[in-house]
# Entry
Amino acid sequence: MLVRLTDGPPSHPGASASCARLFEVTLRGLREETGTDTATATVVGLADAAYDAQHPDPAGPDRLRAALETLDASPGAGAAPGAWRTTVADVAADLDVIDLRVLVEAWARSVQEDWTAVSTTRR
# Structure
């Protein structure tokens, strides 16, 4: 199936249409499993939190921190990181070699670390 990533308006404030669509397509299979598997629902929630943290959603970084259960950092104070080490594009690129659940967790931790680095340098 060929998916055009630029179809339609972005489904997430602050995200480009292609990024929002890539996120949607990448997580589609897991979203379909959330009703029958609580572990999958947790992974999808973590992916949503990581995506929110990388876009202009004021609650995004705090939601990610709560999802990761790491209370030692306070992301969200001030401006977002200037660059992200990992994005949903990296997750999508590695789908054929690494389990999506593993990729989502690594992505979320990377986003948390990016926010923590910004928070630390601004103190």
